[in-house]
Amino acid sequence: MPRTSAHHALASFAAVLLLVTSSVFANAAPEITLRTGDPAPKLSIKKWVKGEPVKEFEKGKVYVIEFWATWCGPCVAAMPHVSELQAKYKEKGVVVIGVNIWERDLTKVEPFVEKQGDKMAYAVAMEEPIAGSPTRGRMATDWMAAAGRNGIPSSFIVDQKGIVAWMGHPMKMEKPLAAIVAGTYDPKAQAAFDTKVEELSKQASEATRAKEYDKAIAIRDSLAALDPDTAGIQKLYKVSLYMQKGDSQAAGALADELLAAAEKNKDGRLAANLAMTMLSMPGSEKSDPARALKAATLAYDLSEKSVAYQRLLAQAFARNGKFDKAIELQQKVVEATNPPLKEREQKVLDEYRKS
Question: Which domain range does residue 172 map to?
Fold first, then answer.
């Protein structure tokens, strides 16, 4: 059975927690208009930062569209692997294009790419912006949002016929890419797999919306069994479901299991996901603030104190009534954020100061 980071099982949503905290566990599944087997949307590029520009997809070539941002730790971690794949398959007609999206400060993109050097050994581009949308451009909308993908890094493989053959995490990309290049890939099997995952995800959302929490939990278990790559994210959904159900014991036990795994594997992304679940997702008002603070602290420490996780840690301190620490951290977030998002962060800081 094909393995992919399925449309609704968003394996790396912590990378965008400042942008989509309300969308990850939304009760209603987003409308999906781009699936595997569909013609690839066009490239909407504002500027080519590195490599040879690509105006359109050429038949006979395979393209990898890799979505990333400068502030995304998992994106940076995946770049050497993506570079290796470009080098390995270049002579076989594979073209990798790294497309920057969801960037809070566009002035950081070119210096970042230059600093990466050979760690980012493929074409790099900045997406065409959308008027009135400071962090979502044309590529993020026509590709990521259309496919129901809210986490980066995220890769799309466009086959020799211009069809979206695969989408998922770049670290899971080598096997399908090799098969697509060799002409042995089965897009129908992948499409059928994705459709099944999509249908189960829809059922889970509907059950959650109807407050049928036990049913939703069972469906999340089915999704984890169907696609083991998403087992972690399904457990995070279950933490939220247990909280909504009012089963604090089950929620706490599963949260402790996830936190232990994050500590053992030094997985800051998982710790951040857990903290966000307990602080912002449905049912979070019933979560244990101390656990949330422990998870947020671990995420912050493992991320080398990134601004993205700084905001999360400030929120955790505030939830625990430690507003002096929350104010100190949130002030740094405000100072590091550019307009128009700066105003939003200032409002959060003002709320902490009132408490």
Answer: 13-186
Q: pLDDT of 298-354, one tens digit each?
A: 999 988 777 878 999 999 999 999 999 999 999 999 998 877 778 889 999 999 999
Instruction: Report how far residue 132's alpha carbon sits from residue 143's, in angstroms, rounded to the nearest whole number.
Output: 19
Question: Exposure of 347 by Cβ count < 10 A (0-12 exposed, 13-18 middle, 19+ buried)?
Answer: exposed
* Six-digit token string for 336: 């590091």
Stated pTM of the model: 0.70
The helix/strand count (H/E) of the chain reads as: 13, 6
φ, ψ for residue 27 (rounded to 5)?
Answer: -65, -35
Count of Cβ atoms closer than 10 Å to residue 117 Cβ: 9
Question: E-strand spans in the chain?
Answer: 45-50, 62-68, 94-100, 123-127, 154-158, 164-168
Cβ within 8 Å of residue 299, ≥6 positions away? 14, 262, 268, 269, 271, 272, 275, 309, 312, 313
Half-sphere exposure of 114 (CA within 13 A, CB side): 5
Q: What is the CATH number for 298? A: 1.25.40.10
pLDDT tens-digit profile of 247-280?
A: 999 999 999 999 999 999 888 889 999 999 999 9
In a domain, 199, yes or no: no
Residues 6+ apart with CB under 8 A from 173: 64, 82, 85, 155, 157, 166
Number of separate domains in the chain = 2
Mark whether 141 and 29 lie in a shared domain: yes
Domain stops at, among 186, 201, 228: 186
Sign of the Cα pseudo-torsion (146, 147, 149, 153, in order) = negative
Identify the residue whose tokens are 């500027």: 47
Residues 153 and 248 in one domain: no
**Start-to-end CA span in the chain (Å):** 52
Number of Cβ within a 10 Å radius of residue 88:
14
Q: From the centroid of its chain, how far is CA 279?
A: 18
